[in-house]
Amino acid sequence: MNPGKQPESSRSPSEGSSFPDGHSGAPPARPGYLTVGTGSTSEHADRLAALLDSDSGYGGSIADGESLNRGWHHGVEADRPTPVHHAAAGDGERRVMASHIHQLYYNQNKNSLGRAIGSMVDALKEFQKMNTIWPAHYPSVQRSDSGPSERPTLQHAQTSLQHGFQSAFSDRPSPIRRADTTLRDASPSAESSSAAARRPGAEPRLVTPQLAQDFSILKIDLKMGSLRQTELVHSLEKSSVAALLDGQIQKSVQHLFALRERIDDTSSKVLVTGDLNAGKSTFCNALLRRKVLPEDQQPCTSIFCEVLDVRENGGIEEVHAVPIGQKYRRDDERTYRVFELKDLENIVIDNEHWAQCKIYIKDIRSVDESLLNNGVVDIALIDAPGLNKDSVITTANFAKQEEIDVVVFVVSAANHFTESAKEFVFNAAREKSYMFIVVNAFDNIRDKNRCQDMILKQVAKLSPATFKENSELVHFVSSNAIPTAPPGHIVSSGGSGSASGGPPDDDGDDGPSGKGKEKEKIRDFAELEASLRRFVLEKRAQSKLAPAKTYLMNLLSDVDSLATINRDIARSELDRVTQELEDLLPQLEQSKKATDNADKDTDQAIEQNVSGVYTHTRDALNTSVTRMAETDFGIEYPGALSAFQYAEDLKYAMLQTIADTVGACEEHARQQTVAGVNMIKNLGVLHLGNGFPDVSFRPENMFRRKRDMLARQVDVEVEFSDFFDFASLWERQEKVAGTGMALTVASVVGGRLVGGMGWVDGALGAAKILGSNNLRRLIIPGIIATVALGVSYAITSIPQSLPRRLSNKLYAQLAAIDYTHANASRISSEVRRALKYPADNLRVGLKRNIEQLQTKKEDTSKLRGESEMAHKYFSNLVQKAGMIRSNVERVDLEGPAPGVAAGFDS
Ligand SMILES: Nc1nc2c(ncn2[C@@H]2O[C@H](COP(=O)(O)OP(=O)(O)OP(=O)(O)O)[C@@H](O)[C@H]2O)c(=O)[nH]1
């Protein structure tokens, strides 16, 4: 009998009704997934098996709907061998079926989560890779400066049992929050990796503070040193953010591996705790049907004793006592001492040497009945020391361990809950919500109903959830009524009351009513065992799978948020760089054209300038030289006696004039050069704007070393003949003919113009005509007169003759050295040289401008490629996260309340 059926509300709706084998009853009110028939396999079980048959099994790479069409994974088959059923029919078979169904559901959920973990690991690894190419933008954490108490709390989605239970059942992960992807906040700071890298002092990729609040797993803790958050945000390089995120991803991948290991782990640990002397060891022995653990009227168990199936120790029954401070590893004998089972009594009381012991025993009961070897899950029982003020915290901490799936609390029916017990149950209930409570030594109680009422009331206060399901979770039993084999002996399966060391007859009644009571006790205990098995199986799903589910949901939420924001940022970046590229291409074309034009314009301008200067110089010099004779140099003719000095002065004046002309031409060239430089500058400013360097041109630096060229090159010696220009004299004699006969004669007789000695020839010609006598008479005075006249005339015409003669000589001399052309070339070359510098600057500037635009185009194109890739990647990640999430969401770990699945609420 299980007296814990009431209250009505807590009773399972499947109570006495869910079997199509003739049992009457209403359909289950709860969403029961089970209707177990008495046949070998129920319809639902068939369906479930078929569903699982078509499951791809654990580790599939794609977590989507198609996976349901894949084959059964070996891992699932390998989970447990098909149990050998001993129960022929009825309750036994229903229990078997219930276990099967639990196992099927468990495997299905385990496989789904396993696949999701696999996909998630793949996705995270890809994310890590992507993060190196395109450092992800990360929402910054906006903390209050008022202190750590106001910081957003980091939700740990770790696999701790307590959290697993709570988050899975009370605080289910909230649906994935779409990140606030409005780019109001994101866009301004959004920039690509390369852009950010190039931009000096670029802000790190931290955006949208409010988003960070939503992160639970991939949260980057930016608290460092004494820096405030805002300072920190700006001090972090984007590479640092990427590295921090990479670290978080790495941690997450490791945690996912740990979760996968955990969900693959088929073992389950049941901690049996309770008050001193409540009968914990007796209860464990009853479960094992062997007197393994020492029982005593006085407290004796002082260390944690873990009972494991002998298969885990190579089939050898023995005790491994673990010394205090040692971490037990079965495969390392240095970590424990081996004892025989019979030594256990001495070990369990010796808490001065031993911290715990591992007891490997054989449980040869059938897989349907055995707790340790039940065909579904490897259960280890842990008998804890009785609770007292000192041990309550130790035991509570022990119970919190991840691997403890179920806590069974044994309370003495006579003593009810002691203060230590209350403290423990109350705290444990907060962690695990449901507890399995065994009210032991119920045989000692006369007013059983009152005892039940009182204890249930206490349970209601301490653990309301457990109270709600009390028919499944609170059992009133007498553990000592269960037949157990003495140490070293083994009872046969299914034996009830027939084993050696059988139940003591508490009331000494051997009659039919006494036997009836014994049977009742055994039945109650059997019910407890069935409930406990279900509870362990159900809790195993919750304790092993719920943390994985919770963690995945939180992680998916983070990944979805990160992927969404990064997708949107990549999109906006893509749009921006596409636009930039569109603007850049015509700019580049224009710049190329402008460069060509500027090049041509500059060349043309230089050529014009240079040839203008050349022509100007040549013309000016030519004019200067040819007009030299007519030029009045302002030099007074000092008379014949100083004629040589006069000639020298004249020569230098002429040379000076030419030099001045050259100087004027140079000055003109300077002006032309200044104009040319300005023109080039204007072109530069036109095409390069401020990018054109402001070259300062100093025209005075031109033609510095050419000043004395003329003096060195032109060396005209003044000769005697330079003073007399006979040709010129001849021309002029017309004007003076009337003044002297001899001259007239000479002009008449001479009849021809000769240079040099023409006058003398003329005189001789005249002598022939006049006859020798006359002539003889006239000749001497005539000659004298003529010569005197000629000399006088020549001397007086020096000021006219000398400039011409000198000018002619200079002209000839200058022509001989190609002076005009040489100077015109020199000056124009200097102009060309002077203009070359700004022209080169302009060319270099234009070239650089094109190169810069070209580089910008290449960078922008690269950026565009990166953004496009990032956009595609993050869009896919959002999709992938959504797909994984819907698969994880489908994993229903809540299922029916404890025991409902089995349809056993009796
Ligand atoms: N009448 C009765 N006595 C029981 C029952 N279960 C245990 N006992 C007795 O209670 C005493 C204590 O049992 P244990 O199993 O040693 O108790 P325990 O909780 O393991 O004790 P410690 O761990 O040492 O605190 C023993 O003498 C048992 O025979 C029961 O169901 N009915």
UniProtKB/TrEMBL annotation:
GTP-binding in keyword set: yes
Localization, UniProt: Mitochondrion outer membrane
Membrane topology type: Multi-pass membrane protein
Disordered: annotated segments: 1-41, 139-205, 487-522
Domain Dynamin-type G: 264-566
GO biological process: mitochondrial fusion; mitochondrion localization
GO terms of molecular function: GTP binding; GTPase activity
Amino acid composition bias (Low complexity), ranges on this chain: 7-18, 186-205
Coiled coil: none
Keywords associated with the record: Coiled coil, GTP-binding, Hydrolase, Membrane, Mitochondrion, Mitochondrion outer membrane, Nucleotide-binding, Transmembrane, Transmembrane helix
Gene Ontology CC annotations of this record: mitochondrial outer membrane
Gene3D superfamilies named among the record's database cross-references: P-loop containing nucleotide triphosphate hydrolases
Catalytic activity reported: GTP + H2O = GDP + phosphate + H(+)
Key word Hydrolase present: yes
UniProt biased composition (Polar residues): 155-169
Source organism per UniProt: Trichodelitschia bisporula
Transmembrane portions of the chain: none
Principal cellular location given in the protein's record: mitochondrion
Organism taxonomic ancestry: Eukaryota, Fungi, Dikarya, Ascomycota, Pezizomycotina
Protein name: Dynamin-type G domain-containing protein
